[in-house]
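To close the chapter, one final illustration. This time we ask the reader to focus less on the individual chains and more on the assembly as a whole: which components sit near each other, and how the overall shape emerges from the parts.
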Amino acid sequence: MTPTQYRTGCALNYNVIGESAFIFNVSAINNEFQKVLSESFSTNPAILVTESRAPMEEKRLHRFQAESGSLQLCYEALVELSHYRQTPDQVPQIPPAELPPDVLPYIYPSRYCESDKLTRLALYEFGNFPTGFSQVTAICNYVRDNIEYLPGSTCQSTSAHNTVTERTGVCRDFSHLAIAFCRALSIPARFVSGYAIDLNPPDFHAHFEAYLGGRWYIFDPTRLSPQTSFVRIGTGRDAADTSFATIFGNVQFLSMKVTMEYVSGPRPEFTTDAISTSQLIS
Amino acid sequence: MTPTQYRTGCALNYNVIGESAFIFNVSAINNEFQKVLSESFSTNPAILVTESRAPMEEKRLHRFQAESGSLQLCYEALVELSHYRQTPDQVPQIPPAELPPDVLPYIYPSRYCESDKLTRLALYEFGNFPTGFSQVTAICNYVRDNIEYLPGSTCQSTSAHNTVTERTGVCRDFSHLAIAFCRALSIPARFVSGYAIDLNPPDFHAHFEAYLGGRWYIFDPTRLSPQTSFVRIGTGRDAADTSFATIFGNVQFLSMKVTMEYVSGPRPEFTTDAISTSQLIS
Amino acid sequence: MTPTQYRTGCALNYNVIGESAFIFNVSAINNEFQKVLSESFSTNPAILVTESRAPMEEKRLHRFQAESGSLQLCYEALVELSHYRQTPDQVPQIPPAELPPDVLPYIYPSRYCESDKLTRLALYEFGNFPTGFSQVTAICNYVRDNIEYLPGSTCQSTSAHNTVTERTGVCRDFSHLAIAFCRALSIPARFVSGYAIDLNPPDFHAHFEAYLGGRWYIFDPTRLSPQTSFVRIGTGRDAADTSFATIFGNVQFLSMKVTMEYVSGPRPEFTTDAISTSQLIS
Amino acid sequence: MTPTQYRTGCALNYNVIGESAFIFNVSAINNEFQKVLSESFSTNPAILVTESRAPMEEKRLHRFQAESGSLQLCYEALVELSHYRQTPDQVPQIPPAELPPDVLPYIYPSRYCESDKLTRLALYEFGNFPTGFSQVTAICNYVRDNIEYLPGSTCQSTSAHNTVTERTGVCRDFSHLAIAFCRALSIPARFVSGYAIDLNPPDFHAHFEAYLGGRWYIFDPTRLSPQTSFVRIGTGRDAADTSFATIFGNVQFLSMKVTMEYVSGPRPEFTTDAISTSQLIS
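The assembled structure is written out below.
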């Protein structure tokens, strides 16, 4: 299949009040299905930036120190995406006893996905669905039908346990709740931060992956952007693992601009197929 | 209508480790629909007990000091119950602007009924039901269908906000959740502690009342005991207002026995009628 | 003692989107120590307003229906304040067994003052202070020293249990936390909304009262305004009982202006005396 | 330095009600400072057990399926321990900008260590201590002085945010709270499950490690067992990463016996030195 190319990136503006350290996690990773054809990571004023990569391509970090004054960070990349596709009925749940060791951490609760508190609710709502891809789809349908997408209604400390009662949120909250339901049913699930097309207004996006049929498959309970356009930045247990910027010091956030545009290849599409952009775990 | 008579009461055993003060709220109140024909409140060893009554017959309190040693409290009463009955379709919601001042406190959140956190959920689940008696019945059905009655699964600090996600509880938790949903929909609702027949094992019971059609009507989401048998002890915003025993000092709870038996008159019955045992607010 | 006169009030502006019902609780109450010499409560456009008073002068409510369109509410009052004064060492804690029935509700936890969750912390921090006025003063000192006064850092759902860990808040949060600590030590405590002088920017204020030595005494952990200037609006278990506006309908809040100025008599002063503005409970 | 040898292990008894899958994490890991000289992992009835190891020796997992009936798991090991020692004033905090990528995940909040909610409290209580080993020691002192060690007072869902207000807990809760405080101050901190000597009654133990001066150093706010005796089982962000048993199915826990005894070499000791049993991160 011909891959699709996208141009994506972000510009972030800060007012640095005292010398501060920054860790950014905004760069697209490379794997079998996502190739960064070209990219630039720059700051204004120019600062020496160190890059480090987490094992297993979970994320790339850019770190630097900045003096007082205004600071702009600018990331741009040309990325090529392809996908592994499967028909949903070929994507069964893996019995817990057979889950690979690398996948096991994703069945346990995390900061924003308190699956241990939602076990009975998950069993009540989803316990009677056939297991596998369609059960996770039922979870996504529930989240989309029960939670109102309402920018500004939640904050940094909002978790799945809050969202399930307060009933509002943004992409991050939608994914946290769906992940918590999956784990409550012993389905490994993890959080992915990224870029996505057609968001209005343009912004970073978040979706999640469930481990089914021997792979991590993509799910997005918001249904706001075609899944085939998702450019992966960071992968982790929840948003605590994938924050775009970790800042040590006294810094004021001023503004942000995120861009994502189609360049060439097959057009992005909403699909009911099972699609994956994670490399097989050996 | 001939009233029904019940014999009810409790025996509570403590080990008092240092001089302690007790406030008990286990006595049946008197009103237009509930007459205490005879009763005794005694302690062993015998102690001078002071009784005080809250305004508007919300509850009766028995207070005393006890020295170190074993302590038994014994309450027995012969109570006569009658009811105001109405057909459900004659029991409409009262517009908030027309609620009597005495009723208004019961639309606000309280310790165990955080209605402010459940507004969207209440609107989502019950917003499309016709208002009035049938909407509160829908709330009770939801609670009974979604929450598992599981003694020992909850504790003193469990609130409606916990119950709605954890999905287990006892009569107290069932009522707290239903009250929170009512208040979230601007329906005044309050908690009632009491005695009830046919509980297995015998125990204190809790139900709630919603203010509809100009009266406080009885609802019990547990459906474990016929509503016409409920003997009212205390009325308040939630269980914080109606605890059976408030103890100041170092005291060990040993055991409890609650009794409730039918004596004479019409047999207790489950009913789908709207019934009330609260005096009209003048 | 000559009383002090203040002119106080508020103007609240709304955009009413559909027909809505309002309940306002912004009027000064009358009691032995606080006399409303003159006042006006008006709306623009003019609407028929109903007033009701809660028993025991806990608060006065103004209610009305408003049609779509802009709505202004304007309250102005000339109020005369005096105080009961006592030296702190004459203000002992009342043994729980001797608390009047009307006071008892204020030892139990409420929505924003979860004293049941803070018992050990309260005993650890304040258990070794001498009981009475100085112990409550120790609580106020702790709150002022540990919590940063930071407007905008908290919201409607913030409770004492949040504040004690998050360590920021406004006057409402300061009082909620102090109340929770008092109740955890079996000291009755309640919330008071009101007007106060010298606030910058001018705003409604909140303080609390502890029941000691047979009276409700004033405490304000914020120390932002002289206690002798406090004009009482509403009294209750916490902010859930004293919200300035309860609105049923689709209404947009636009702006608010609160005024409070000294007119005549002894100047307001910060005091370390025990002062009370509550009528003796008979 | 001559290493010390310990014999340790556990016996766990279950009643398996339907076919179930088990993942155990009770085996001692091997690294530069901890050598498993001999060990056995057995079940009764005998079942084929699969072992997998997490990368970087974080933990070893034993997995198997069991049929209905009684099940006993028995683990025994002879382990040899040595330590890296350093004087506390040679153990400085590492500036966040210089933390190795493998260490970074441990500055973010996790399920039981909500450091994001305790930032102000941590700064208030510990911000004025000199950074490095002595600041983490101050955190341990605070936890030991403020939290009562009270078996049975907490449960599986108890987190640092609960413990800091409820003020009781066991070793797991003590470590969670200390970890949360460290992370709130940008000190990487992680949870370690293990065996330890002289616990009364014998039980699994938990301590934590803070990343200082280029190594993970051991801290134990409970002070219940000499740090040099700690045998490492699992390492992770919090107890969610290191549960002794993860069970899929209907299984009843019956009883548990943990053993740990000194065999030979230098006697275990409480020490105020900085000691480490983690291999250097390359």
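The two ends of chain B are 24 Å apart (CA to CA). The interface with chain A takes residues 117-118, 120-121, 124, 146, 148, 161, 164-168 of chain B (CB under 8 Å). With these observations in hand, you are ready for the problems at the end of the chapter.
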